[in-house]
Amino acid sequence: MAVVTQVLGSEWTKIKSVRSTVWTLGVALVVTVALGVLISALVNNEYDRMSVRDRLVFDPTYVSFTGMGLGQLALIVFGVLVVTNEYSTGMIRTSLAAVPQRGIFLFCKIAIAGALALAVGMVTSFLTFFAGQAVLDGHRASIGDPGVARAVVGGGLYMTLIAVFSMGVAAMLRGPMLALGILMPFFFLISNILATVSATEKIAEYLPDKAGQKVMQVVLTDDTSPYGPWGGFGIMLLWVAAALAGGYAVLKKRDA
Amino acid sequence: MAGRVPGPYREWMIELEDLSKRYGDRLAVDHLSCTIRPGVVTGFLGPNGAGKSTTMRMMLDLDSPTGGTVRIDGKHYRQLHNPLRTVGALLDAKAVHGGRSAWNHLLCLARSNGIPRSRVGEVLDLVGLTPVARKRAKGFSLGMGQRLGIAAALLGDPRILMFDEPVNGLDPEGIHWIRTLMKSLAGQGRTVFVSSHLMSEMALTADHLIVIGQGRLLADTSMADFIARNARSFVLMRSPEQERLKDVLSGAGITAVPGASGALEVSGEDAAHLGELAARHRIVLHELSPQRASLEEAFMRLTAGSVEYHARTGTGG
Ligand SMILES: Nc1ncnc2c1ncn2[C@@H]1O[C@H](COP(=O)(O)OP(=O)(O)OP(=O)(O)O)[C@@H](O)[C@H]1O
Ligand SMILES: [Mg+2]
């Protein structure tokens, strides 16, 4: 029987001894913050020309999170590589010979990678919030305003769950190209297209990213969605749980 | 040899019982039963595609058997506490993340099984990789990769060792080194199980042989027995006066045994001497030929019926 603390230690050594960890998480942070600041600055210039209606639903917190749409792609790469690295290098056989309890192996790996994503996600979320608000000048939100702290913490949690969801999907598919080839277009294109077309708008609300992003919104006046911030987050959690269950089932059943 | 052995003797043993593995419509491993014992090097021999690697993967619970069981120390692999401390295996030297250094690769494995950090340096030293310990494994040559795999196998100081074609990619010095290593591990009382498709290689290392072909057990024998039965040199004599020849030979104190198709086989005499003896007695000989059955030939005869990928002999089609 493998000892969980030992396997956690091993996975920690694994994740910090490959370069892809630093660059994927680094890109996620830099892209999210930089884009968030840039768009906050643009919106700040536009503010005076906005309609009254637009000003009413203006959500400075959510505006500073705009960069996450792109930054999350780096987190997807992080999540996918953490898992598929094992398969593409053949390391999986060495790993499973060392830890034959596949459930312990997979969930320790995901716990370590998820904890790292959480740390980076929180730092990114707070950084992008404060940097974005600094640029938003007179229209800024304060962390003490109602719902703002929840949205900022939620931003960090959202980034974590995007990474963990990718890990589950990667464990099901095993190949890095296949996993990225499905996840990237899904989050970057398909989810957005579904959300824009009115016929599929309602379906899009239940996709993991669209539901999860609700937790980052503070101003919900113009909102018809059937769930609140944490309700949306719960829907995303269900997606993550399903991906993990699928990944575990595949790992458990198939030959390594 | 498949039977269960009672009591303490089951320790350190690997027992395969009726082990089978099916891929699609073909049986890669076909009801294989055998026992691998401690204190000796057991060679696991078979032509390409015989099922050696598949069997070894099932021993480590990487592939699940279609039928049958593997017991290590009387237990299923999954039940071993810190398995690397009981079983060390080299299956595929390339099973390493190329971006990780040799040192970190081994450290990951050590941590997962509660093996002290200091052991990493020890095994790297043992396989001669200390100078490149901090280099990324990506840049390793085939032989260096093989050494890293061997270091990983030795990491937990296990009582059972398994090597799948360990001499692959090693230079003559490396081959000599691994032979010596395997013998000394067995000498310490450990169980050493090593696969190969080269009989000549096994003849120099193994004490015991398990031969498979198309997944089926073909032989389970000691190396000494196998050599005694297969690698003798003798002179084949054939004469129309076979009986008189036999008398003459026995009169000279030479033992002749009937061989294939009515010829006589004489061991321990050279052909020239036997020819002169026959001439002196005016016996007509139809054949007088020195024979040497190599182990490789014996192995090929044994597996002939089960070789999967026959190459055409000679050139052209
Ligand atoms: N994952 C797999 N899927 C399908 N067939 C497989 C798989 N692994 C092995 N086989 C087949 O099973 C048979 C046994 O293969 P295996 O690799 O165990 O042979 P081997 O004795 O190790 O051969 P070699 O000496 O070439 O290494 C082969 O016919 C191979 O094609
Ligand atoms: Mg093989």
TrEMBL record, chain A:
Q: Which parts pass through the membrane?
A: 21-42, 62-83, 104-131, 151-171, 178-199, 230-251
Domain of life, per UniProt, equals Bacteria
Q: Does the keyword Acetylation apply?
A: no
Q: Which UniProt keywords apply?
A: Membrane, Transmembrane, Transmembrane helix
Has UniProt tagged this entry with the keyword Plastid? Answer: no
Q: What is this protein called?
A: ABC transporter
Q: Which organism is it from?
A: Streptomyces caatingaensis
